Amino acid sequence: MSDPTAHHVGVTVSELDRAVAFYTDTFGLEVVAEFSVGGEAFADAVDVAGASAAFAHLAAEGVRVELVEYDPGGEPMPERSLDRPGATHLGLSVDDVEAFHDDLDPAVETLSEPRTTESGTTILFLRDPDGNLVEVLDA
Fold first, then answer.
1. Whose CA is closest to 98, among 81, 80, 110?
2. In angstroms, rounded to a whole number, what is the distance separating the alpha carbons of residues 66 and 2?
3. Does pTM top 0.85 for this prediction?
4. Pairing of strands 8-12, 63-71
5. Distance between CA atoms of 133 and 53, rounded to whole angstroms?
6. b vs e for 69-83, b when ≥16 Cβ sit within 10 Å of the residue's Cβ?
7. Helices vs. strands in the chain: H and E counts, helices first
8. CA–centroid distance for 115 within its chain
9. Phi and psi dihedrals of 55, rounded to 5?
């Protein structure tokens, strides 16, 4: 048995260019790779008939964020709620959540103002342009 290591966190998006702009502008992530994949083996592997996809990998200090736009694209998921089984979110740390929030584009949807939890961690949840949840927390 091999020892698994984390390779990436995948986020499915409806428009790759828009998502790349959001994650690079909002978080300062750097695009480190862009590529497309298609063919029967890929479609079989992802269990989507006739699928191909465009990918962008972004560097997030030791973790790769993989943004992927599928063709054909599926139906959007209902609005995400963190308390639902199967819910996912991407967690990114910043030096100062309050300052990050203050500099955030007003068009970015947040679930609340930054909050300091009982554990002493300050957190802020926001949604990317497709409604995917992103947790921002103190480094």
1. 110
2. 23
3. yes
4. parallel
5. 22
6. bbeeeeeeeeebeee
7. 3, 8
8. 21
9. -125, 150
